[in-house]
């Protein structure tokens, strides 16, 4: 079963390793005809191949007894027939699909309790830590063992501009570590802030890690690299990354509002504006005029009059999450490509490949179609078309992802995995190397049989905020069940392909040691695994069967107790016939219904009820933890064109004066375009 380059994934079936309900074999399951020949020719080697005393005892017996012990119930997977099964061999290298062609994957929960986790990155220093940024401006350190450090890596809550409004796009939006972080301790951040005269700005800054603690940023080390005024409160961009060329790429939004209304052509088509652009700068050298960066000489518009030299590509609306392809682990094909998800306006979401000097069409085009017809007729547009675009029937806010280049799930190699914030869909694109066309594949979570292994889950929070890649190349996504910057409802999930796993030991790595001064908080998953759900289902079925059995079994009739009550002394209202010898009985008074009611009104003279039992009912949960609203939502990177805050609770006096006027009743926010 084993050979170059790796073992067959079906080898696990030979040892019943795929079934968690059965004990693991220490001798493979053999096909009956092969087993008889094996025992006849190699029975003396059985004691050397297994420690199972039953198999060792069968060494000197007939082959039928031995073959009965090593028999595998599933004949498709016994050795050596599994090597000749064309159907199984043909599926090697292909992710398992359901009947509708959906790629079935499973998940593991790796973090929870986060406030809109917008970014997760690694430092590339061999420690295999990952740094998770919350929208409010706090960055946490997670260690390879899954624990989180109690003290944050960075806390900028007092500077970062954001609100609890559902879908507020402002906040801490981007984080990237310098390619030579191990030597210079530098990293870069992207966040919203208020400048002078309360002007909203985008700020890109450089910071350093503290010399005293490698898990703490030095708060006094911030150097502002770039600031851009924001004309509106949305479309803030937020991606920072370093290309293979060592330069830093900055992805900005078009400035907000609907349809990029700024100027004759909008900000995105205006090369003198830094909004709606992909910028490329050299942060290792200072520039002229006091700039803390230098523009690379090969930037495409360095010599074009009126164009800002830092512009690398333009015509983007609000690119939300971009990533650099590591390339195929063997051939390096695709290495260095930059993929981005660009959030659309009214009709389409798109995935783009960034090229030098590219014009991505906005606001003339949205997806493959015209948005501004006047600009769209401009023959000089020469825009770069997306590699894939989908309509709003599928989703209304794309979240860009990564090309999988990890080790643990080899069937996923080369798939670009991304999602949609509004619909919660997970999707993948697969490239046809001959035609260079990309085909979309839906991703669904496997059923109970597919994901019934320890630690695997098949559910996730609905709003997909971002994707991430750890130092080993495994893929994650960040999601929340309540898209508010202050709601601790965010979780992080790792993708697992149950159809094919890497051979044991192939993907092991040894993280570089890192000193920790802060206390470690061990991770406690909140999501129930598929095995937990199956166990609960089985327990419910057992209880239901037990109750049904108890209800159907006959019970012996209990003997009736003699009544201690005396016969009622009141005369019946029914008249009885009287004969000549019948004597008239005397009437005896007994309390009637009216008297009983009067007696029940007498004050109770017993013990008083303790005060603890006379408390009022508890107050209702705060609004934050109520079931999620029914109106549409947004998120960092979604398109609010005019912010409408979630209605705030009015002071008592205002509520008294409010009465039932329509202006005082809370209204859901309109859908953001």
Q: What does this protein look like?
A:
This is HHIP-like protein 2. Residues 619-628 have a biased composition (Low complexity). InterPro entries: 6-blade_b-propeller_TolB-like, Glc/Sorbosone_DH, Quinoprot_gluc/sorb_DH_b-prop. This protein has 673 residues and is an alpha+beta fold. The protein folds into two domains: 11-90, no CATH class; 103-534, TolB, C-terminal domain (Neuraminidase), CATH 2.120.10. Helix content is 12%, strand content 23%. The protein has eleven helices and 28 strands. It has helices at residues 11-14, 32-42, 46-49, 53-57, 63-69, 86-90, 181-184, 373-376, 530-552, 593-600, 652-658; strands at 103-114, 117-122, 130-134, 138-142, 148-149, 154-155, 172-177, 186-194, 200-208, 223-229, 239-242, 248-251, 277-281, 311-314, 319-324, 338-342, 348-353, 365-366, 369-370, 388-391, 398-403, 416-420, 426-431, 438-445, 463-469, 475-480, 490-496, 520-521. An eight-stranded mixed sheet has the order 21-22-23-24-1-27-26-25, with no helix packed on it. Strands 2-3-4-6 form a four-stranded antiparallel sheet, with no helix packed on it. A hairpin with a 6-residue loop joins β23 (426-431) and β24 (438-445). α2 (32-42) packs across α5. The longest helix is centred in the C-terminal third of the chain and has 23 residues, at 530-552. The radius of gyration is 35 Å and the shape is elongated. Mean pLDDT is 82; it is low at 1-7, 89-95, 566-589, 595-634 and 639-673.
């Amino acid at each position: 079963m084993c050979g170059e380059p790796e073992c067959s994934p079906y080898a696990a079936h030979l040892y019943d390793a795929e079934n968690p309900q059965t004990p693991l074999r220490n001798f493979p399951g053999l096909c009956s005809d092969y087993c008889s020949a094996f025992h006849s020719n190699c029975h003396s080697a059985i004691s050397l191949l297994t420690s199972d005393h039953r198999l060792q005892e069968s060494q000197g017996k007939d082959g039928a007894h031995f073959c009965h012990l090593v028999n595998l119930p599933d004949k498709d997977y016994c050795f050596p027939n599994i090597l000749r099964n064309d159907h199984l061999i043909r599926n090697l290298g292909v992710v398992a699909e359901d009947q509708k062609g959906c790629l079935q994957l499973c998940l593991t929960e790796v973090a929870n309790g986060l406030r809109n986790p917008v970014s997760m990155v690694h430092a590339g220093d061999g420690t295999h830590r990952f740094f998770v940024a919350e929208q409010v401006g706090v960055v946490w350190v997670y260690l390879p063992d899954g624990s989180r450090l109690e003290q944050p890596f960075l806390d900028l809550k007092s500077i970062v501009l954001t609100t609890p409004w559902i879908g507020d796009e402002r906040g801490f939006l981007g984080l990237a570590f310098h390619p030579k972080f191990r030597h210079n301790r530098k990293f870069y951040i992207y966040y919203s802030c208020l400048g002078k005269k309360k002007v909203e700005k985008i700020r890109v800054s450089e910071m350093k890690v503290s010399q005293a603690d490698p898990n703490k940023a030095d708060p006094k080390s911030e150097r502002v690299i770039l600031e851009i005024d924001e004309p509106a409160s949305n479309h803030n961009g937020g991606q920072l990354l370093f290309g293979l060329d060592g330069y830093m790429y900055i992805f900005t939004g078009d400035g907000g509002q609907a349809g990029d209304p700024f100027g004759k052509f909008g900000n995105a088509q205006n090369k003198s504006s830094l909004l709606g652009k992909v910028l490329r700068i050299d942060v290792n050298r200072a520039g002229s005029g006091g700039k803390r960066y230098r523009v690379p000489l090969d930037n495409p518009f360095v010599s074009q009059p009126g164009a800002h030299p830092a512009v690398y590509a333009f015509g983007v609306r609000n690119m939300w999450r971009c990533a650099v392809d590591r390339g195929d682990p063997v051939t390096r094909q695709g290495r260095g490509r930059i993929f981005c998800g660009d959030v659309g306006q009214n009709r389409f979401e798109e995935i783009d490949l960034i090229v030098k000097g590219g014009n991505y069409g906005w606001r003339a085009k949205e997806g493959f179609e015209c948005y501004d017809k006047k600009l769209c007729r401009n023959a000089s547009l020469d825009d770069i078309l997306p590699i894939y675009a989908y309509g709003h029937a599928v989703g209304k806010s794309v979240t860009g992802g990564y090309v999988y280049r990890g080790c643990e799930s080899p069937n996923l190699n080369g798939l670009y995995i991304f999602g949609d914030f509004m619909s919660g869909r997970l999707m993948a694109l697969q490239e046809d190397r001959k035609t260079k066309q990309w085909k979309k594949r839906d991703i669904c979570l496997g059923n109970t049989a597919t994901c019934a292994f320890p630690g695997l889950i098949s559910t996730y929070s609905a709003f997909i905020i971002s994707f991430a890649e750890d130092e080993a190349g495994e893929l994650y996504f960040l999601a929340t069940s309540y898209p508010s910057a202050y709601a601790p409802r965010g979780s992080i999930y790792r993708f697992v392909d149950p159809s094919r796993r890497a051979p044991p030991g192939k993907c092991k790595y040894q993280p570089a040691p890192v000193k920790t001064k802060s206390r470690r908080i061990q991770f406690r998953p909140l999501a129930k695994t598929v095995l937990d759900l199956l166990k609960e289902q089985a327990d419910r079925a057992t209880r239901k069967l037990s109750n049904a059995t108890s209800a159907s079994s006959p019970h012996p009739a209990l003997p009736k107790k003699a009544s201690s009550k005396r016969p009622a002394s009141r005369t019946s209202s029914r008249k009885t016939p009287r004969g000549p010898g019948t004597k008239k009985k005397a009437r005896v008074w007994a309390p009637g219904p009216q008297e009983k009611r009067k007696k029940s009104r007498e004050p109770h003279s017993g013990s008083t009820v303790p005060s603890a039992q006379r408390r009022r009912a508890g107050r209702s949960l705060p609004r934050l933890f109520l079931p999620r609203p029914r109106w549409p939502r947004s998120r960092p990177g979604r398109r609010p064109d005019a912010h409408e805050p979630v209605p705030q609770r009015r002071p008592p006096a205002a509520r008294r004066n409010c009465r039932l006027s329509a202006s005082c009743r809370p209204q859901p926010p309109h859908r953001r375009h």
